[in-house]
Amino acid sequence: MAAGGALCGSREGSAGLWNWNQTWYTNTPRFTWCFERTVVAWIPCAYLWICFPFYYLYLQHKTKGYIRMSHVFKAKMILAVFLTQAERMKGIQSSGILLIYWLLSFMAAVVMFSSKVQHALERGFLEDHFHHVTTYLYVSLVLGELVLFCLVDHPPFFSKAVNSPNQCPEASTSFLSKITYWWFSGLVWKGCQRSLKVDDLWPVRKEDSSEEIVSWAERVWKKCHSRTQQKVGSATFKKGQKSETGIAEAEETEVLLQSEHSQSRPLLKAFWSMFGTYFLLSTVCLVICDVFLFSIPKLLSLFLEFIEDQEAPSWHGYFYAFTMFLLACLQTLFEQRYMYMCLVLGLRLKTAVTGLVYRKILVMSSASRKAATVGEIVNLVSVDVQKLMDLIIYFNGTWLAPIRIIICFVFLWQLLGPSALTSIAVFLFLLPLNFMITKKRSQFQETQMKHKDERAKLTNAILSDIKVIKLYGWEKTFTEKVLGIRKQELQALKRSQILFSASLASFHSSTFLTAFVMFAVYTLVDNTHVLDAQKAFVSLTLINILNSAHSFLPFSINAAVQAKVSLKRLAAFLNLEELNPESSSRNTSDCVQASITIRNGTFCWSKETSPCLRRIDLTVPQGSLLAVVGQVGAGKSSLLSALLGELEKMDGCMIMKDTAAYVPQQAWIQNASVEDNILFGKEMNETWFNRVIDACALQPDLESFPAGRKSEIGEKGINISGGQKQRVNLARAVYQKASIYLLDDPLSAVDAHVGQHIFEHVLGPNGLLKDKQTRVLVTHTINILPQVDNIVFLVDGTISEIGSYQELLQRNGAFAEFLHSHITAEEQAGTGFPALGDTKGTITSRSGLSQRKLFSDNLVRSSAMGRETIPASQDSTTAAATKGRLMKEEKTQHSRVNTSIYAAYLKATGLPLCVYTILLFTCQQAVSFSRGYWLSMWTDDPVHNRTQQHTELRVGVFGALGVIQALGRFASTAAVLLGGVLASHKLFLQLLRNVARSPMVFFEQTPIGNLLNRFSREMDAIDSVIPDKLKSLLGFLFNLLEIYLVIIVATPRAAMAIVPLTVLYAAFQHFYVITSCQLRRIEAASRSPIYSHISETFQGSSVIRAHKAQERFILKSNFLVDENQRICFPGAVADRWLATNLEFLSNGIVLFAALFAAVGRTHLSPGTAGFSISYALQITGVLNWMVRSWTEIENNIVSVERVREYLRTPKEAPWTLNGKLQGQVWLTEGRIEFRNYSLRYRPNLELALKHVNLTINGQEKIGITGRTGAGKSTLAVGLLRLVEAAEGAILIDGLDIAQLGLHDLRTKITVIPQDPVLFSGSLRMNLDPLNQHTDADIWTALELTQLKNFVADLPDQLEYKCTDQGENLSTGQKQLVCLARALLRKAKILILDEATAAVDLETDLQIQSTLRTQFKDSTVLTIAHRINTVMDCDRILVLENGRVAEFDTLEHLIAQKGPFYRLMEESGLA
Predict the structure, then answer these.
(1) pTM for this one?
(2) What are residue 1309's phi and psi, to 5 degrees?
(3) C-alpha neighbours within 13 Å on the C-beta side of residue 351
(4) Taking a C-beta distance cutoff of 8 angstroms, is the pair 1239, 1248 a contact?
(5) pLDDT by residue (tens digit) across 189-224?
(6) How many angstroms separate the CA atoms of 350 and 354, rounded?
(7) How many Å apart are CA 838 and CA 914, to the nearest integer?
(8) pLDDT bracket for residue 886 (50, 70, 90)
(9) Which residue of 547, 935, 1033, 1052 is most buried, as measured by CB atoms within 10 A?
């Protein structure tokens, strides 16, 4: 009082600074005159003075341009001149600092205003009218300022931000809109009106863009990395001084090297220096949020005291209710701001990491490329980045959760004394239980994952080689294998789900158990301990906070551990060895005459390995053609890599003049149009483009593609043949008009006559590159060597000889010997083929194909691309591009999911189980309500002699109800999760059967990735995600109904508020779910191109570097990442928008529950009021999680739709037909008759075979030949019914094959494909998948194919495990295994599709002799791509444009000098 008097002066009636009787214990509260004039008046000013220096510094660092003097601004200027002017100059359109200042000023003014009004009512208005009028005027002005500061000013002039019309509205919205996320409502509304597209979303903000963040990240990372390298360098230097300073110090330095300079530390420092400040600001928000979180139980305690104290003034209740509402709202705002800042930070981190990883790919050395696979790199930017993003949200939990737990215990101690410590015993009891459950569950999950991987591997193998499986009629066998693995997988899942149910039941029961033990100990230890409403329900509220902190802690620790591992992985990748820019120097001056000069060059793949090229001295004059030849492994490709600077230079020097273009041996193709692949970022020059196309023999191919040059090439060139890939690769290099061309065996993958054409028109002395272009050609094609300027002959990494063709022959050295051995082998094979390929080169190029082709070039092209002519009217870029699309795009759902999908899922679960689950949930929630109601009755028990009656009964019933509820929770959760397993089994079975029954055209049109996605990701969602989210949704829904029931039972009038608030809730939920689901689907689609681009870049990095196209690829990566972020950002804001609005509604429900309790306190017991409000306080979390569960279900139920999608796709004919062939032996002779047979691959394409009429007699050997696209392989396709006839029929032994079951037909015909196909499994399984033959039969077949000794020497012989695609066998051995498989089938009809193209000459001779002896009684059709392979056939069929051109014996065909003779001339055989 004395202090108050000194502060305020001695005014009459001032009552000092504070007076409880005047302020609190009264029905008409008011502050003392002194308090109003000092504290109230100075709070706004103090706030502004404290904020001013920090805010002004912030403004100095944030310039957005300046705002013109608008009316709003002028009105604001009246009172807050300096800061408002500073904000205008810095472009701040809406100020939070000043808005809060005016809000505080307004509240202070309202206090003064109410005081004046009370004063006037008591003593009359006329006593001091001047002060009254000025007060009213002041309040009006402050209110006006407050309203003005809620408005937004004009956007700033000269802003550095891009002023796009579709700019993110956050920057130009008011402060209130920013903190409540109402600026996002426009997009939510748009998403409900129509389907959202990427263009509807705002471009990524400048501060979040790849351009800004990645360049910043690069600078910081280089700085931190180089600093660490210097420290390591100096430490290593010290370590070297061991002899002088003693061993102990050196060991100390070694420890320093290991701990101080761990790889991940500089990366962590880099991220911290970039994002640390922003993260600390978000942490401040979370700490403030926690302060409000703990103030609510305190207020609840005071409110229940008020209910109990009937003498307390009524306004206390309203004051507590509104304060509770205000604090809850502030908690919401700070929590959501924290989440928003974390998510923005997460997106920036993701951009930084993706950018750093992508740039690293472009500079990785060869040794580094071996250390990291594409899959691992994609994991870095998907899985590992996600772990780091999770850490940002969870990290604060590692230190805040323990603090929360401690505070809860302190508060509980205040309420219940030492009894509060018993809750520790509950946690100690539950901890080992949960640990045991988790450990056991993780074992089941490991088992499940092992089976899942096995299943994925087998599914991948089946889908990759579906053509072979269909040809042999093995679908049933392989589907049974998959189902066998799936059964084991679901068994493990079922056990895991039961344990998960137990774990959840124990977690949900922990609140009850803690409360039960504490209340029981508190009341039973001492009779005088009374459990009143305040103690019981405030304790429950604190226990809920305690439990959430307790459950959050393991998540946080787990997130930190996982992020640490991810950071290490990321750092390890970023620290991988990079290419040395000094390995190759590019010289653009004209003073150097030679294009390429290497002096005494020694090169290796990495510093750790021995040199692969030694003492290389090479000078290549400008404009010359140099051929590089040698045996396999001589170092030919290594020489080109050295020229490109891809190898580590150990010694010598190397100079390359001007630009280079590179054609790798394994063609690198982008997933883009043919035109884009060839242009490779250059401007279109129509004349030059056409010349390049003609020279590279691509014109006929382009004409056969549906959209010509605009036709899309699939990933890794999946829909074009190896030869076409190599020619596109070559065309790309030629189009660049470079000075130097490095060509790594581009002729190995093309047919002989095409190779000749390319050499003449591109590479040779008269080709496109003859003018001044220097060409270094690695080749195995001997017949072109006389036409080159110089030849380098390599032996074991050194240049053995160098000179012209004639010079080298005259020397009669190593080169002449090499030439002689090749010509001899050629003669032995009896071929006159001029362009003999080196075995290794051919194998490499073929086995590198991403999907093995069974029938070669022409089938793939005619079936996948189709041979359509483009009508003139459609000849526009767009039409052509659309037409050229090969792959069917994945359908994305735009509107909400159809209810029929939910019905399908529930039907798969089973109706009885659904009803049983709903009943269980209802029962356990009813028990939960009874338990809460029983507690409220207990707290209302009257107190006699400071004790309550029937305490033991109350404790017993309370405990029993809790146990029953826990059992109900377990049963209901288990029912949902096991129902999910049941549904998953049925849906998987449907999917597998539908895919297996699909025709071949379906697999050609559907990318294998889409199918694998259905079997892995979509099935994973059905296995785990949907049941989990459905369980959560049902749990929260029944929980919400219980809370509503509690509030309405306690305060029936609250129903008036609950109904409209629930309607609002439903509206928010509806709007959010539609928009959020669309955003998630668009985001998922935008992620794949990033990963594809990374994969593409990794595979083609040498080509990109050779063409100096790094900058263009980096820009594309930036664009793809920004497009993904453009969708991720609204997705993150949508969550905040929903959470903020729902929490405000929840806070509204708490407010009304409290208000109605305050109004009706005369007839309301404290127990009932506590029961009602403590339940109402839980509603925030329940509503939030309920919508999230519903959204997750809505997003994931699409998986059910996708899995069922193939129910409606066309299916092939039945595998077997009952009644057909039963009891009769068919196919004894092998006579094939085509009657007016025509075939087209798809309904909208031209006929691929036209009116074919021919008869092939039993046991006849037929050669089928013709140009590319003539229909050779199509004939075999028709014979095996991979595609059904358009008209006509094929008869085998007089039976129309269309009348047979597919398996009946295909098991009687054997195909030996061009590329041998083996599956992951035992050798026996590969030879006899149907398990029809004895071991003796198999050994006989192996003996005939000369594999017996090889297999006998293997560790497990027939049980020897073949790896995926049989990679642990050589190509020759794989081909022989396929031959042994054919021998076991003993078919009367055999189809050979260039079966010996990929093996060496010796193996070729073995195969030919075995075929002649073993299949002498069978009809053999040989599809030939090289004429020499059909010379010894009985008759030869020549096809042209799908028609029979000639069909006769070799002698007659040569005599006729028709199409066949012309083919012989082209191949140099005539």
Answers:
(1) 0.75
(2) -120, 135
(3) 33
(4) yes
(5) 888 888 888 888 888 888 888 888 888 888 888 888
(6) 6
(7) 65
(8) low
(9) 935
